Here is the input.
Amino acid sequence: MEKNRKKTGIDLRAPSGWGELTAEQTVTVAGLLGEGLSSAEELALLCFFRFTGVSFYRRNMTNYELRQRQKTGLRTDFSGLYRYKKYIVEIDDDTIFAFAEKLKFLADVPGLMACQNTIAGLHFSDSELWQTTFEEYCMADRYYRAYSKMKDENHLCAMIAALYRNKKEAYRDELVEKNTKRILRKSQPEQRQAVFLWWTGLKVWIREKYPDLFSGGKNTVEFGNTESDDDDSESIMNMLYSITEGKAHENRQVFKTSVHEVLHALNTKAKNINEMNSKFKKNN
Here is the structure.
């Protein structure tokens, strides 16, 4: 550091997994992923600077100032110096690359993370869907899949609108259409992509949580492959049929049930079927 300049420390802490990202950091990652970066290293380094608030220190000097600094023994080379808030700090390359190395997981398949609590003035904070109904889950996932295939921003906004509402407002189909327009108008693309990123990680977590239901990519009780081109409506009806055992008048009740209760029941059915199939194969 330069003479007579007060030294300051900087505490560099890297999130070690998706679950440690803040909502703001998730938006940052989603925005950078949308830029099509060339490598995990580039993503990790950019996230280092965005997460920490550290930036390059640049200073232009006149020839006179350069000579004066040389005479007094001050630095004329500013490599390794960075700005942090109102301070100038010195960070060696090894420290930066070690920090960035821990962030390379951001280029891998997403995991469970915190969702954005607010978008376009609408609210949702149920990151693991414990308070979310089966109906909300089905609608959000239908639009998620549509956006994944067609990249139509309206589908992504509709996916968000299936979950995000004014506080204490219950799900209604007409609200989805209304809030879709609001989200498209009042949110930034990187905010919407952060919700998409969270849902992607959530789906990975759900598949791991209910392994028999999603074994081999397609569950045994005719849900249909989440990533396939199967008709969404038919997949949902198959799930409802499996839960109600064909009692159509109970479908509305299932839609209003917690999504985890429904998936747990379906997973139990799938587990029993898988066990029976395994025994059958051993005996033949």
